[in-house]
Prior knowledge:
With 217 residues, this protein is of the alpha/beta class. The chain has 2 domains: 2-117, Response regulator (Rossmann fold, 3-Layer(aba) Sandwich); 127-216, Winged helix-like DNA-binding domain superfamily/Winged helix DNA-binding domain (Arc Repressor Mutant, subunit A), CATH 1.10.10.10. The chain is 41% helix and 20% strand. It is built from 8 helices and 11 strands. It has helices spanning 10-22, 33-42, 59-68, 84-93, 105-117, 152-163, 171-178, 189-201; strands at residues 2-6, 26-30, 47-51, 74-79, 97-100, 127-129, 132-135, 140-143, 146-147, 208-210, 214-216. The strands form 3 sheets. Strands 2-1-3-4-5 form a 5-stranded parallel β-sheet, with helices on both faces. Strands 6-7-8-9 form a 4-stranded antiparallel β-sheet, with helices on one face. Helix 3 (59-68) links the parallel strand 3 and strand 4 (74-79).
Amino acid sequence: MRVLVVEDEQLLADAVATGLRREAMAVDVVYDGAAALERIGVNDYDVVVLDRDLPLVHGDDVCRKIVELGMPTRVLMLTASGDVSDRVEGLEIGADDYLPKPFAFSELIARVRALGRRTSVPLPPVLERAGIKLDPNRREVFRDGQEVQLAPKEFAVLEVLMRSEGAVVSAEQLLEKAWDENTDPFTNVVRVTVMTLRRKLGEPPVIVTVPGSGYRI
Length: 217
């Protein structure tokens, strides 16, 4: 899942991004509304965690732009105000969910994951394919009943492949979904991660390389 965090309190923004990355999400961070519009115009995000009171361009206007463009991106709006009228206004603008500050980080993660599931074809909470069972919420992976310990990026790559339901996923798509924009697009990080993931999942291999196209399970 790829997430954009838009928050002008830099310490909070960076803390949220760090926490989401630990949950195997690819996260970009900006600190004002103008930068958010720039990123949205370049990258495809599953979820935008959007502070409402932003400098340069207000969060409401960023949300309106996402709706206007007809993007499948889901918006979780943050605000220091917990008034019902503010929540209603934010939802009417086009936000998909609303979370007042201060918030419990576990709730933020749960809401981001729930919104992420709504950006694509609905799938069951626990993904199962080829003897692999992946639980995104618990961040657990089992193969043939045996738990497999994965690093965050390995988990993210496996989740993207599982969600594709047998379709081929290109290295570029994996890079876009599992890594943030600071990753060198010419790096071999995808190939190395897939190799490590194959080894950890054991024999027989379940990740198939489709020459010239990508990978599938």
